[in-house]
Amino acid sequence: MDEELLGIGAFAARARLSAKALRLYDRLGLLAPARVDEVTGYRFYRADQVERARTVALMRQLDMPLARIAEVVDADDGAVAADRLAAYWADVETRLAGQRTLAEYLRGRLSGRSSEMYGKFVVETVDVPRQVLITETRHTLADELPAWIGSALGRLEEAACGGVAGAPFVAYHSEVSMESDGPAEACVPVADEAAARAWAGAQGRARGTAVRVEPAQRLARTRITKAQVAHPQILAAFEAVEQWMAAEGLTAAGPCREVYFADWDATGAEDPVCDVAFPMR
Q: pLDDT at residue 2 above 60?
């Protein structure tokens, strides 16, 4: 009934918001009035909508996307709403941690301390035999890369023809960043070339799958921990190998790569899990 409703001015005062904010929330689908007068267009709200209005306002101060705010305020259970907010904030903290690390990395570069960063990495060479590879190639941006690497290598290892014959790796045929989408190529060495070619033929071009053979080659590499795999720490590892190669008068003979030799789920942050490497001539 009308006498149980508050006009927008009274409701705004009780919610400690402006009428302009309430009109915005209505337009965004976050807080609809209980009734809108068809003749005057005046908005009316129930008193029990005050809590939702205040909650929406507070979450907007967290820079939450509108869809995430709606997920929280539309939850039927308070515990579910709290969990959804916690999940959003965990995502924010992960992003901020990455940005903090990137800022430190850039400070090192801008201040001329790059050589100090590179000195943390030990570069060596290793000979790799000829390998038959089953591969999956995708154009991907940096934020999508970790999830794709895990799923792509998992699919390829499951399909491994004659068994996995070496450490899986990801080759980068062009830069992968937030502005550049590669492509990146997930590769798994397999034991049976004939079976690999039959598998590739059956796949067609699904998921960008293929089979190819890499000749025996020498890699310049540095071994990094699980924590160092995260962006942008890993950039310093790639640059350290490039600097070492330049000092040795060597050039890259193929795409750079990340070679994963450890069980990711079973390792800790400080355990070695990956070689950052360049084929060289």
A: no
Residue-wise pLDDT for 68-96, tens only, equals 998 998 888 999 999 999 999 988 887 78
**What tens digit of pLDDT does each residue of 24-63 get?**
888 888 888 988 888 888 889 988 899 888 888 888 889 9
Decide: 42 and 8 in contact? Cβ < 8 Å.
Answer: yes
Q: pTM for this one?
A: 0.66
Residue 259, token pair as written in the block:
């070679």
The domains found in the chain, sorted by start residue, are 2-74 (1.10.1660.10), 123-279 (3.20.80.10)
Q: What are phi and psi for residue 112, nearest 5 degrees? A: 80, 15
CA distance 174 to 10: 59
Residues 6 or more apart whose CB falls under 8 angstroms from that of 196 comprise 132, 133, 134, 161, 162, 190, 211
At 81, which helix (H) or strand (E)?
helix 78-110
The DSSP code for 254 is S
How many Å apart are CA 150 and CA 48, to the nearest integer? 47
Which stretches does DSSP call E strand in the chain? Answer: 5-7, 35-36, 43-46, 123-128, 131-138, 169-172, 184-190, 209-214, 217-225, 256-260, 272-279
Q: How far is CA 256 from CA 235, 239, 261, in A?
A: 12, 11, 16
Radius of gyration of the chain from Cα atoms?
27
C-alpha 262/C-alpha 265 separation (Å) is 9
Q: Are 31 and 38 in contact, with CB atoms under 8 Å apart?
A: no
Question: What local confidence, expressed as pLDDT, does residue 3 receive?
Answer: 57
